[in-house]
C-alpha cells in the first residue's frame, strides 16, 4: 500500500470516529431534562396544571417538523444525486410541463399537516382558556412600573400595592421585588388589567403570557402544583423603566398563604387608581404606599 493510500485510509478512519462520536453526543444530549422539555423554561413538567400539555404540544410539534424536514432534505439530496448530469450526457433532459400526481401530493400533504397542527393547537388552547370556578381570584393591575394585587379568597378581600423595583446590581435585590402569592393546589383566576399603557404578564415557568390592555380584562386560569418562587416580568415594552418591571410569584401552602393575607390591608384598589386622561405618569408607581 502506498503512502498516499495509507494517508487516505487514516483520514477515512478519523472521519468515521468523528461521525460516531458526534452521533453519540447528539444521542446523549437527548437524555437531558432540558432537551426532553424542548428547552422550555419550566422548572418541572407539572409546575401548573397546564404546563404538561403545553410542553407536549411544543416538543411533539418540533419532533414532527424535524422528521418532515429530514425526509424533505433526503428527497432533495436523492434527486440531486440520482438525476445529476452524467459525464457522457448530451443535449437537454426531457422537459415536463407538469406532473399531476406529484402536484396533488405536494398540495394535499401540507394541507393535512396544517389541519393537524391546527387541531392539536386549538384543543390545547381551548383547554387552557376554559373558564373555571376558581377558589382564588386575583385582580392583577399593572402600572408603570409596578403591580397591584387584589386578592379574593374565602370571603376575604385584601390588596397589596407595590412600588417599582430598582435594580442596583446588589445581591438580594430579587427578594425585594413585588411578589404575587398563590396557594399550591388551589385553582386560580388571574384577572389582568392595566392602569395606564399596554403591559404583558409573563411567568416563564408557567409557560403562559397574556397582554394587559387598558379598559379590557384578560384572564388566566391555572392551578399551581409546585411550591417555590418563580420569576415574572412585563413582556411588553411599556416605557423608560420597563426593564425594572419585575415581580416574583411565590407558590406556598394554604396556611402560609392565609398568613400572608393577614398581613395585607382590607379591600381592593380598583379603577380609581387608574391613570386619568391627561396624566403623564402614575405617581403611586414611584411613591411608597400611603403617600
From TrEMBL:
This is cytochrome-c oxidase. Residues 269-278 have a biased composition (Basic and acidic residues). The keyword Repeat does not apply. It catalyses: 4 Fe(II)-[cytochrome c] + O2 + 8 H(+)(in) = 4 Fe(III)-[cytochrome c] + 2 H2O + 4 H(+)(out). Subunits I and II form the functional core of the enzyme complex. Electrons originating in cytochrome c are transferred via heme a and Cu(A) to the binuclear center formed by heme a3 and Cu(B). It is found in: Membrane. Keywords: Copper, Electron transport, Membrane, Metal-binding, Respiratory chain, Translocase, Transmembrane, Transmembrane helix, Transport. Residues 269-291 are annotated as: Disordered. Belongs to the cytochrome c oxidase subunit 2 family. It is a multi-pass membrane protein. NCBIfam families: CoxB (TIGR02866). Its EC number is 7.1.1.9. Pfam families: COX2 (PF00116). Residues 133-263 form the Cytochrome oxidase subunit II copper A binding domain. The chain crosses the membrane at residues 57-83, 104-121. It is an enzyme of class 7 (translocase). InterPro entries: CcO_II, CcO_II-like_C, Copper_CuA, Cupredoxin, Cyt_c_oxidase_su2, Cyt_c_oxidase_su2_TM_sf. SUPFAM superfamilies: Cupredoxins, Cytochrome c oxidase subunit II-like, transmembrane region. It comes from Paeniglutamicibacter sulfureus.
